[in-house]
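Appendix B. One record, verbatim.
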Amino acid sequence: MKFILGTKLGMSQVFDDKGKVIPVTLIEAGPCLVIRVKNKEKDGYEAIQIGFGKRKAKNVNKPLKGHLKKTHSSQLTTYSKWLREFRIEKPELKAGDEIAVDIFKEGDVVKVSGLSKGKGFQGVVKRHGFRGAPASHGTKHNLRAPGSIGSSFPERVWKGKKMAGRMGGERVTVKGLKITKI
Protein backbone atom coordinates (compact mmCIF):
# COMPACT_ATOMS: atom_id res chain seq x y z
CA MET A 1 0.00 0.00 0.00
CA LYS A 2 1.43 3.36 -1.07
CA PHE A 3 0.43 6.72 0.41
CA ILE A 4 1.74 10.26 0.63
CA LEU A 5 0.55 13.73 1.66
CA GLY A 6 0.70 16.79 -0.58
CA THR A 7 -0.78 20.15 -1.46
CA LYS A 8 -2.42 21.24 -4.69
CA LEU A 9 -0.44 23.89 -6.55
CA GLY A 10 -2.84 24.42 -9.44
CA MET A 11 -3.88 23.10 -12.84
CA SER A 12 -1.92 22.75 -16.07
CA GLN A 13 -1.86 20.68 -19.24
CA VAL A 14 0.55 18.30 -20.95
CA PHE A 15 0.58 16.83 -24.43
CA ASP A 16 0.85 13.09 -25.07
CA ASP A 17 2.86 11.56 -27.95
CA LYS A 18 -0.11 11.95 -30.35
CA GLY A 19 -0.46 15.67 -29.55
CA LYS A 20 -3.61 15.23 -27.46
CA VAL A 21 -4.02 17.64 -24.53
CA ILE A 22 -4.25 16.04 -21.07
CA PRO A 23 -5.43 18.27 -18.18
CA VAL A 24 -3.31 17.69 -15.07
CA THR A 25 -3.35 18.79 -11.43
CA LEU A 26 0.02 19.90 -10.08
CA ILE A 27 0.66 18.52 -6.58
CA GLU A 28 3.62 19.13 -4.30
CA ALA A 29 3.91 15.76 -2.58
CA GLY A 30 6.36 14.74 0.12
CA PRO A 31 8.80 14.22 1.57
CA CYS A 32 6.70 12.97 4.46
CA LEU A 33 8.18 12.03 7.81
CA VAL A 34 6.93 8.95 9.68
CA ILE A 35 5.92 10.39 13.06
CA ARG A 36 4.66 7.28 14.80
CA VAL A 37 3.99 3.61 14.10
CA LYS A 38 0.93 2.35 15.97
CA ASN A 39 0.67 -1.33 16.88
CA LYS A 40 -2.12 -3.64 17.97
CA GLU A 41 -0.74 -4.29 21.47
CA LYS A 42 -0.41 -0.66 22.58
CA ASP A 43 -2.99 1.21 20.44
CA GLY A 44 -5.50 -1.51 19.48
CA TYR A 45 -4.88 -1.18 15.73
CA GLU A 46 -2.00 -0.99 13.28
CA ALA A 47 -1.34 2.29 11.49
CA ILE A 48 1.36 4.73 10.43
CA GLN A 49 1.12 8.42 11.28
CA ILE A 50 2.95 10.68 8.82
CA GLY A 51 3.58 14.41 8.80
CA PHE A 52 3.94 16.85 5.92
CA GLY A 53 4.62 20.55 5.53
CA LYS A 54 6.43 23.02 7.72
CA ARG A 55 5.24 24.90 10.78
CA LYS A 56 7.30 27.18 13.00
CA ALA A 57 8.04 25.95 16.52
CA LYS A 58 6.27 28.97 18.05
CA ASN A 59 3.01 27.87 16.38
CA VAL A 60 3.03 24.38 17.91
CA ASN A 61 1.39 23.80 21.30
CA LYS A 62 3.17 21.91 24.07
CA PRO A 63 1.24 18.59 23.83
CA LEU A 64 1.92 18.40 20.09
CA LYS A 65 5.59 19.34 20.61
CA GLY A 66 5.88 16.42 23.02
CA HIS A 67 4.29 14.11 20.47
CA LEU A 68 6.54 15.32 17.64
CA LYS A 69 9.82 15.52 19.60
CA LYS A 70 10.23 11.75 19.37
CA THR A 71 10.86 12.01 15.62
CA HIS A 72 11.90 15.65 15.17
CA SER A 73 15.24 16.80 16.50
CA SER A 74 15.00 19.14 19.49
CA GLN A 75 17.13 21.70 17.59
CA LEU A 76 14.65 21.92 14.70
CA THR A 77 12.90 25.24 14.15
CA THR A 78 10.08 23.75 12.02
CA TYR A 79 7.59 20.96 12.68
CA SER A 80 5.14 19.02 10.51
CA LYS A 81 2.05 21.05 9.60
CA TRP A 82 -0.33 18.18 8.76
CA LEU A 83 -0.53 14.82 10.51
CA ARG A 84 -2.50 11.94 9.02
CA GLU A 85 -2.85 8.24 9.82
CA PHE A 86 -2.95 5.42 7.31
CA ARG A 87 -4.07 1.98 8.47
CA ILE A 88 -1.65 -0.66 7.28
CA GLU A 89 -1.02 -4.24 8.38
CA LYS A 90 2.54 -5.18 9.34
CA PRO A 91 4.22 -1.82 8.62
CA GLU A 92 7.87 -2.05 7.55
CA LEU A 93 8.55 1.63 8.27
CA LYS A 94 9.71 2.99 11.62
CA ALA A 95 9.49 6.42 13.25
CA GLY A 96 11.85 8.92 11.61
CA ASP A 97 11.78 7.33 8.14
CA GLU A 98 10.98 9.49 5.12
CA ILE A 99 8.41 8.73 2.44
CA ALA A 100 9.32 10.39 -0.86
CA VAL A 101 7.50 10.68 -4.16
CA ASP A 102 9.76 8.03 -5.74
CA ILE A 103 7.50 5.25 -4.38
CA PHE A 104 5.12 6.10 -7.26
CA LYS A 105 5.82 5.76 -10.96
CA GLU A 106 4.23 7.24 -14.07
CA GLY A 107 1.07 5.42 -15.09
CA ASP A 108 0.06 4.38 -11.55
CA VAL A 109 -3.66 4.67 -10.83
CA VAL A 110 -4.31 6.43 -7.51
CA LYS A 111 -7.12 7.61 -5.23
CA VAL A 112 -6.91 11.25 -4.10
CA SER A 113 -8.77 12.82 -1.16
CA GLY A 114 -8.97 16.48 -0.23
CA LEU A 115 -11.19 19.41 0.73
CA SER A 116 -13.45 20.91 -1.93
CA LYS A 117 -13.63 24.66 -2.45
CA GLY A 118 -15.85 26.38 0.09
CA LYS A 119 -18.57 28.36 -1.71
CA GLY A 120 -20.28 29.89 1.31
CA PHE A 121 -24.04 30.15 1.80
CA GLN A 122 -25.86 29.23 -1.44
CA GLY A 123 -29.49 28.95 -2.50
CA VAL A 124 -31.26 25.80 -3.65
CA VAL A 125 -30.78 26.49 -7.38
CA LYS A 126 -26.98 26.50 -7.14
CA ARG A 127 -26.65 24.03 -4.26
CA HIS A 128 -29.09 21.30 -5.34
CA GLY A 129 -29.92 22.15 -8.97
CA PHE A 130 -33.56 23.17 -8.41
CA ARG A 131 -35.26 24.77 -11.43
CA GLY A 132 -36.95 27.64 -9.67
CA ALA A 133 -40.36 29.07 -10.60
CA PRO A 134 -41.40 30.01 -14.15
CA ALA A 135 -40.75 33.62 -15.16
CA SER A 136 -44.33 34.17 -16.32
CA HIS A 137 -47.89 33.21 -15.28
CA GLY A 138 -48.08 35.46 -12.26
CA THR A 139 -44.65 34.80 -10.73
CA LYS A 140 -43.22 37.86 -9.03
CA HIS A 141 -40.09 38.02 -6.85
CA ASN A 142 -40.08 34.24 -6.48
CA LEU A 143 -37.86 32.94 -9.29
CA ARG A 144 -35.21 31.06 -7.29
CA ALA A 145 -37.26 30.03 -4.23
CA PRO A 146 -37.36 26.36 -3.18
CA GLY A 147 -41.16 26.02 -3.25
CA SER A 148 -43.12 23.87 -0.80
CA ILE A 149 -41.06 22.12 1.87
CA GLY A 150 -43.53 19.48 3.01
CA SER A 151 -47.09 18.45 3.82
CA SER A 152 -49.10 19.07 6.98
CA PHE A 153 -48.56 15.61 8.48
CA PRO A 154 -45.20 15.63 10.21
CA GLU A 155 -45.65 19.36 11.04
CA ARG A 156 -41.89 19.81 10.92
CA VAL A 157 -39.12 19.81 8.34
CA TRP A 158 -37.70 16.36 7.59
CA LYS A 159 -34.01 15.81 8.35
CA GLY A 160 -31.89 16.01 5.20
CA LYS A 161 -34.39 18.21 3.34
CA LYS A 162 -32.69 19.95 0.44
CA MET A 163 -32.62 23.61 1.38
CA ALA A 164 -30.31 26.60 1.12
CA GLY A 165 -27.12 26.46 3.20
CA ARG A 166 -23.36 26.18 3.19
CA MET A 167 -21.92 24.59 0.10
CA GLY A 168 -18.49 23.04 -0.43
CA GLY A 169 -15.67 22.77 2.06
CA GLU A 170 -16.20 19.04 2.51
CA ARG A 171 -13.98 15.99 2.02
CA VAL A 172 -14.08 14.66 -1.53
CA THR A 173 -12.41 11.49 -2.86
CA VAL A 174 -11.70 10.87 -6.54
CA LYS A 175 -10.73 7.35 -7.59
CA GLY A 176 -8.99 6.14 -10.72
CA LEU A 177 -6.67 9.09 -11.39
CA LYS A 178 -3.56 8.34 -13.40
CA ILE A 179 -0.14 9.76 -12.57
CA THR A 180 1.07 11.55 -15.71
CA LYS A 181 4.49 12.82 -14.61
CA ILE A 182 6.63 12.87 -11.49
